[in-house]
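Standup notes
- DV: blocked on the single-chain target, sequence here:
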Amino acid sequence: SRVLPQLSPAPAPQASSVQHRLVVRDASSLQILQLYTCLDQIQHIEWSSDSLFILCAMYKRGIVQVWSLEQPDWHCKIDEGSAGLVASCWSPDGRHILNTTEFHLRITVWSLCTKSVSYIKYPKACQQGVAFTKDGRYMAVAERRDCKDFISIFVCNNWQLLRHFDTETQDLFGIEWAPNGCVLAAWDTCLEYKVLLYSLDGRLLSSYSAYEWPLGIKSIAWSPSSQFLAIGSFDEKVRILNHVTWKKIIELDHPATITSKKTIVYKEVEKSPTVDTERLSFPPTRALANSLFSTQSKYEISQVPVSLQYIKPVADRANPKVGVGMLAFSADNCFLATKNDNIPNAVWIWDVRRLKLSVVLEQLCTIQAFQWDPCQPRLAVCTGSSRVYLWSPAGCVVVQVPGEGDFQITSISWHSSGDSMLLLSKDNFCVCYLQREEV
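- DV (later): unblocked, structure below
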């Protein structure tokens, strides 16, 4: 199994694992700060919210080990024994660890301060069954009892049950709090198009369903201001609900042909570099060899109408590549980025203030991931190549990651300061530092 490196939540170190070893580096210099040796192969690592502790989960052995950066000699070991372990995470206060046992029989809450243990029974095995409010005060847990779905809301400072209520779902698929912590969204399996919105005390505020029989919801995203809830569907549309009436305010289509002249289409093009024959030398230098055999990539603005590559899904296979599977709001609430799986090489960027399509990025390869800068409207995109693509309202840029070999970027993680980001491939990672302009 592959463990992804993690940047600390605070502007502090970075952690990665190699088999049994946990390596903690300085995020600015990549200098090694600490080395820890675990009992078995690490399958999951996670920082505490204050970056003082880091947990390493070894699911195969049902063990979690916790290390302290302030006191390198201190460590903690949690053994779930015969109950097994399938998931482990921190609570928002960074002093409690939530372990989910095999077959989702229970969630065990371990306290590092008092060494006390609490149990939460019947957690549901779904995509997103545990959700914390942004301020860390409350936790919602999806549950399954007697063939029926429930949600329990707990107070995180003492783990007391605040509310417990059943949901009007056939097969609850996920839950997510609004950033302001006032509304909890719960959505049904893809076979049933239904989004339910609950208040903190368990009251059903609203229920939304766009249609009945085809496949339904594929992805969901709250805006940072909690004013909008974007719902990506299998019918290749995004529907945006408002926070006042919880009614739909607009549908955003993803057609294969862009016709509006107000939409800017950036197309990635690849060109082989021209080399001056007078500069050739044998054997060629490494820099010259890299320039000879590598291709350069850049963006060009396409003239509308533009036809995008459209893939017709195979209907008789499970998990068809159809519908809006990725969507995310920018940190300033001004833009929404989406990806329609039928058009795998394009990123759609919508202007939330005007509710219009602003930009389309047409890439040469399939979009693997994208993520917004946490401090400004700047989107980073990767396509499984050795390049990272950056968009902002000022324009687009292609950044070639220097290095030997084939570094295929499959995932991106921004630093909380927005000054750097982690680029991950299957076996390697690197940190990309972005320079700020002097004012």
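- Follow-up: The two ends are 45 Å apart (CA to CA).
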